[in-house]
Amino acid sequence: MTLKEMAPKTRSNGWKIPIFCLCLAVVLLYAKPFLAGRIFHPDPMPVISDTRSDSDITMLYHERPPYYVTGPLGIYGLCVDPVKKALLAANVRADWVKMPAARQLDMVRFKVKNTCAIGWFKNPDREKYAVYSSAIYRDKPMIALARADNFRLVSGRLLAQTLGNQEVILLRKNGYSYGRFIDEMILTLDPRQKMTAAENIGMLKLVHDGLADYFFISQEEALELVQSSGLLSDNFKLIRFSDMPGGNQRYLLFSKATDKAIIDRVDAAIIEQRTADPADPATDE
Question: How far apart (Å, rounded) are the C-alpha atoms in residues 62 and 47?
Fold first, then answer.
């Protein structure tokens, strides 16, 4: 067969390719939302693989110096250390799993068996779906972090004066509680706010870049956060409030699917440990 004889067939089939491409583009266009949802928004039900059968409970934490820190010798920190002592005294074996803060709450909310998140504040919403331990640590009074050159934020004022100032933007982390005093004041005064999923280091950079004016943080972690951020410490200032009450207490947050015997043993060990140490700051209200 000559090239001339083949030519008509080539021309007759040539129209199929652009039509096929057009159909494919239409299919992808309509399938994109579905595919994006499956890839980037998977089933929200969290899962932890049970790789260690010898553990009694899974302890969830996230990197947040000085409360929870992963070092060469393991996990330690202001909240971790007393919990480890209590677990040892209660003869409860734990797996420590690092997990983002919001996902920890999902694990507890979805009643994952024998699961516990460490170092959380108490608020009415969480009390609906979780079991709280006795207090494991008490923070120093809450403060705020702001840029040093932000003249609109001044130490020594009442909290309401700052939250009521509509010229400044409060940066808040999704799902976080700052304790009853601050949470209720935010609800009452409805300050200008910017929500974020960033951890503290990301929040600090947002303030540094002028995308928000301030955020609340405990005094313990504020200095360490600034020093470890890689930013100049002179660029920031601590904002203290004249009416801020004593620091918030931190607790273990157990899933309601946790064995009650485990909860009771751990809680008893926490109380006994606190009673034996008069200097322990985690005193109950």
Answer: 17
Beta bridge partners of 130: 255
> Is the peptide bond preceding residue 66 cis, with omega within 30 degrees of 0?
yes
DSSP class of residue 213 equals: S
Q: Token pair for residue 211?
A: 């995308």
Segment 30-70, tens digit of pLDDT: 444 434 333 333 444 444 544 445 899 999 999 988 999 99
Domain spans in the chain, listed from the N-terminal domain onward: 57-138+248-276, 142-239
The DSSP annotation for 243-258 comes to: T--SPPEEEEEEETTS
Here the tokens at position 128 are 């609906």
Lookup: tokens for 110: 């979805």
CATH of 142-239, one of 3.10.300.10, 3.40.50.10860, 3.40.47.10, 3.40.190.10: 3.40.190.10
Give tens-digit pLDDT for 66-124.
999 999 999 999 999 999 999 999 999 999 999 999 999 999 999 999 999 999 999 89
Cα–Cα distance list, 146 to 90, 132, 169, 224 (Å): 42, 32, 11, 15
16: helix, coil or strand?
helix
pTM equals 0.69
Tell me the pLDDT tens digit for each residue of 165-175. Answer: 999 999 999 98
Q: Which residues, 6 or more positions from 141, have their beta carbon under 8 angstroms from its beta carbon?
A: 219, 240, 241, 244, 245, 246, 247
Fold of 57-138+248-276: D-Maltodextrin-Binding Protein; domain 2 (3.40.190)
